[in-house]
Structure formats: C-alpha cells, structure tokens
Amino acid sequence: MLAQVSPWYTHAAQRTAAAPAHALTAPARMEWSTHAGIGPGAEILGRDLCGKRVLELGCGPGHNVAHLAKHYQARVTGVDLVGLQVRRARSHYGYIDGATFAAGHALHHLQAPARPSTRSTPSSAPSASSPPSSSSPLFRDA
C-alpha cells in the first residue's frame, strides 16, 4: 500500500517505536506547519466554530483537530492516509469531545453525501488542511 512507503508512515513508525503514544493536552494554537507561529491561527476559519463540522485532511498526529475541538467546540474529523498516524492521533486526543479520526483517502470524505442539515461552503472558503492562499478572496491588497 502507498501509505506504508510514505515518509509519514516511516515518521509515525519511528515515533511509535521511540515512545508509546499517550494522552496529550490540546495545543493552545493551531499551526499550519511543523514550525510554530507560521501563518494565522484558527481565527482564519471564522469567529464562531462552535458546533460546526470541520474536516482536516492529512491530520497526522491530530494536534489541529484537538485544538479546534477543545478550544472552539467544533466537531472535527481528522483524516490521514497513514493508519499509524491516525492511531497516534486517537491515543493523543481521542478523549476530547468533538474530535474524531479516520484512516483513509481524503476523497472518500469529500465525496460523502451531505446530510440535510449540512451547509455547503463556497469553494473559495479556507480549509484547515492547507495554509490560506494569497489568491483567496479573504486576502486582498489594501
């Protein structure tokens, strides 16, 4: 399987071998990369995320999922192709209400039929899966 030859699978296997995953406190800030402080925080997703559904693609160990579920009371699903990463995420943050994790391809979640109560978002809306683009309508020159 492709996921088992990816660098992220190797990374997760090394982290799991080094120390077993254990419950962690949700991070105080949402990060867009492995380098702290790069890009905006969760405020870019809107002021009121309480009860809203958020999908993070490529969630890795689940830090952003945990942050949004704990600090914003959003209902967040983190998806990762690498099952070991999902297992780590569940071990770290599975206790947080509103945080769920699934192993699989992002397309399966993006193609899932919408529930009647789910509002669709415009294609130009930012997602928690990648940093916002300067071409986004949210970012314009003054």
What does this structure look like?
With 142 residues, the protein is an alpha/beta fold. The chain has a domain at 1-6 and 49-113: 3-Layer(aba) Sandwich (Rossmann fold). 27% of the residues lie in helices and 11% in strands. The protein contains four helices and three strands; from the N terminus they run αβαβαβα. A three-stranded parallel β-sheet has the order 1-2-3. The radius of gyration is 15 Å and the shape is globular. The N and C termini lie far apart (48 Å). Keywords: Methyltransferase, Transferase. This is SAM-dependent methyltransferase. Residues 54-106 form the Methyltransferase domain. One of its GO terms (molecular function) is methyltransferase activity. Residues 111-142 are annotated as: Disordered.
Biggest sheet, spatial arrangement of strands:
1-2-3
| Class by alpha and beta content | alpha/beta
User: CATH superfamily of the domain at 1-6 and 49-113, called what?
Assistant: Vaccinia Virus protein VP39
Strand content: 5-15%
> Considering DSSP H and I runs of 4 or more, what fraction of the residues is helical?
25-40%
**Mean pLDDT figure:** 76
Shape: globular
Architecture of the domain at 1-6 and 49-113, CATH level 2?
A: 3-Layer(aba) Sandwich
Q: How much is the radius of gyration in Å?
A: 15 Å
Number of helices: 4
Helix-strand sequence: HEHEHEH
